[in-house]
Amino acid sequence: MKTISKSAFFAVVASTLFCSAAMAQTATPAKKENSQQNRMTTCNADAKTKSLQGDARKTFMKTCLSGDSTTKDGKPLTSSQQRMADCNKDAKTKSLTGDARKTFMSSCLKKS
C-alpha cells in the first residue's frame, strides 16, 4: 500500500509542476504595438491637435487609419510626393541601403 501512496504522491506532484509550467507559458507577456496601433495613436494625436470633433473627426480618423495618401494636414499628396512615397516603400521592401538605395531611388523617381 505504501508503494501506491508514493506513486500517487509523485503523480500529484508531477501534475502540479506540469500545470504550473503550462500556466506560466500561457501568461500573456507585454505585447509590442503593431503598425495599426501605432497608426491609431498617431491619428488620435493629430485629431486632438486639430481639435476635431463629431463627423469631422470621424472622417479624419477613417482617412488617417486607412493609410490613404494624404499629408499630415489632410491634403492629398502631389504626384511627385506620391512617387517619392511609392519609391521609398519599394526601397524599404527590397531592404536597400547606401549607394544601392541612392541608385534605386534616383532611377525610380525619374520614371513617369
TrEMBL record:
Keyword check for Signal: yes
Top-level taxon:
Bacteria
Indicate yes or no for the key word Signal. yes
Pfam families, A to Z = PsiF_repeat
State the UniProt keywords alphabetically.
Answer: Signal
Annotated signal sequence is 1-24
This one is known as PsiF repeat-containing protein
> Which species is listed as the source?
Advenella incenata
